[in-house]
Amino acid sequence: MTAEHASAPAPRTSPAPGTLVVRTVAIDALPGGPTALVDLLPDAHPLAWVRRGDGIVGWGEVARIESWGPGRFADADAAWRAVLRRAVVRDEVHLPGTGAVAFGSFAFDDAGPGAADDAGTDGPDVADDGRPDGVLVVPRVVVGRRGGTTWMTTFETSGSLASPPGAHVLPRPAPVTSPGRVVLRDGSVAAQDWKDLVAEAARRIRAGHLDKVVLARDAVATTEHPVDPRYLLGRLAASYEACWTFSVDGMVGATPELLVRSEKGLVTSRVLAGTIRREPGAGAPHDPALFLAQSSKDLEEHEYAVRSVADALAPSCSSMNVPEAPFVLHLPNVLHLASDVTGVLASPEDGPAPTSLGLAAALHPSAAVCGTPTADARALIREIEGLDRARYAAPVGWLGADGDGEWGIALRSCEILPSDPLAVRLFAGCGIVGASDPDAELAESEAKLEPITGALGL
Ligand SMILES: C=C(O[C@H]1C=CC=C(C(=O)O)[C@@H]1O)C(=O)O
After folding, report:
1. What tens digit of pLDDT does each residue of 231-274 get?
2. The Chorismate-utilising enzyme C-terminal domain covers which part of the protein (predicted)?
3. Which ligand 1 atom sits nearest the alpha carbon of residue 367?
4. Domain spans, the chain
5. Which residues participate in catalysis according to the annotation?
6. Is the CB of 433 under 6 A from ligand 1?
């Protein structure tokens, strides 16, 4: 069913769906290591969803689905199913990520391009570029690996299943290029001014207007040479193995937060909120993990995030497991409080179960990136943040033909601006509660920028 929204343009599939011939075959094992898949990617528009060396990468584009506004998820989901109705698929491997898949990236906000400009944003001109609020890219070639199995999927608009996959031989991509000298500057809101926003948000929370809000900031990196996304991907995949390294339509990053995975009826979400820097400097606690696990401010932030995920998943699940206490996730830059929420997808009597993208839509925006209550937090973000979040903090991932898939929250990420290949916009946000300290939050946001600044060579 296509969602209808008066102000948003209708979704678009280009080229218009014809018959798609999809074929997956097993191929020889790749070398081991976390970058084996991303090392295959060509420089133009690489697609990636990789963790610990497994996952899928893709290139080329056989179809693109674009959607806008509040219906961006449902419209994209419906358009994907329309593509699949005309697809002929032969899958000789049958693993998650084999057969027909599309890579997707969505905007954080419902309001569409320009929303933050109305709030007086003074950043780079990225909002009114006419870009869609959601995109699903159907590649020409996918290579995937899971456990010991490696496969290739080809997508063709002509040909037959009898013919061998057109690109059975793995490509030898052009050498990865360095961005050269990189200069980082403040984005929409100067770092020092951002602390005032944090103080204002904490004041409103203490005054009882809301419980929690996540405030984000951006920074802009300008580079000497055009940014080769693979330069970032290789470094992120090697350094942040516990994260999902992604690249979809110019959005590149390594997120530690899995919004939802739906696989054969099992739903999983890794919820993160509550953070301590790895090297917080003088006066730091002797054992940061213990400090974090006992920090009432961080436990409060975390509890809101877990609750929002559990509440959003509950209507779609017949049973759920919500851990009583979080564990501490260790990353090279920060430690997080983390909870893995799992559920069994219910089979509704009145129609199909939601796809992974439908579940992502129900979960977005969780309290890990927005706040509690959601509507109040969103309103405060729009009022004071002064930032067009674009696709930061929104679902990014992949969707399969059976609706299974994985969607991360696009954190620890950057947007390679289509309008300027020498500019990259980086994002980081922090959960604010009544006890939040502006200096500590600014330092935390700097630590959250590190995956991308490090990948850029800064
Ligand atoms: C919003 C971000 O992180 C979220 C995820 C983990 C921990 C968070 C925190 O402790 O504030 C944030 O909720 C970000 O990295 O930009």
Report:
1. 999 999 999 999 999 999 999 999 999 999 999 999 999 999 99
2. 191-448
3. 13
4. 12-169+180-455
5. 212, 257
6. no
What tens digit of pLDDT does each residue of 299-354 get? Answer: 999 999 999 999 999 999 999 999 999 999 999 999 999 999 999 999 888 888 99
**Which letter, b or e, does each residue of 105-134 get, where b requires 16 or more Cβ atoms within 10 Å of its Cβ?**
bbbbbbbbbebbbeeebebbebbeeebbbb
With a 6 Å cutoff on the Cβ, whether 219 touches ligand 1 is no
Within 8 A by CB and 6+ apart from 71, the residues are 2, 3, 4, 5, 8, 11
Q: To test ligand 1's pocket by mutation, which of 430, 437, 442 has the most ligand atoms within 8 angstroms of CB?
A: 430
Q: Going by CA atoms, what residue is nearest to atom 1 of ligand 1?
A: 429
- pTM (2 d.p.): 0.94
Q: Are strands 20-26 and 87-91 parallel, antiparallel or unpaired?
A: parallel
The runs of H, that is alpha helices, within 119-190 are: none
| 272 Cβ below 6 A of ligand 1 | yes
Residue 214 CB less than 6 A away from ligand 1: yes
- Find the distance separating the first CA and the last CA of the chain, reported in whole Å: 47
d(CA 250, CA 244): 16
Report how far Cα 129 is from the mean position of its chain's Cα atoms: 21
Cα separation values, 421 from 124, 180, 320, 342, Å? 13, 13, 44, 40
Residues 104/109/115/119 CA torsion (nearest 10 deg) = -130
Task: Give the CB-side neighbour count of residue 341, counting CA atoms within 13 A.
Answer: 25
Other Cβ atoms closer than 10 A to 28: 7
How remote is the CA of residue 388 from the centroid of ligand 1, in Å? Answer: 17
**Cα gap 39→314, rounded to integer Å:** 39
Q: Give the list of residues 6+ apart from residue 157 with CB closer than 8 angstroms, or none.
A: 15, 18, 19, 20, 21, 62
Which protein residue has the closest C-alpha to ligand 1 atom 10? 274
Is the Cβ atom of 302 under 6 angstroms away from ligand 1? no
> What's the CA angle centered on 140, arms 134 and 145, to 5 degrees?
90
CATH top class, domain 12-169+180-455:
alpha beta
From residue 409, how far is each of 245, 260, 271, 406 by CA, in Å?
11, 9, 10, 10
Following DSSP, what letter does each residue of 328-388 receive, concatenated? Answer: EEE-SSEEEEEEEEEEEE---TTSPPPPHHHHHHHHPSPTTTSEESHHHHHHHIIIII---
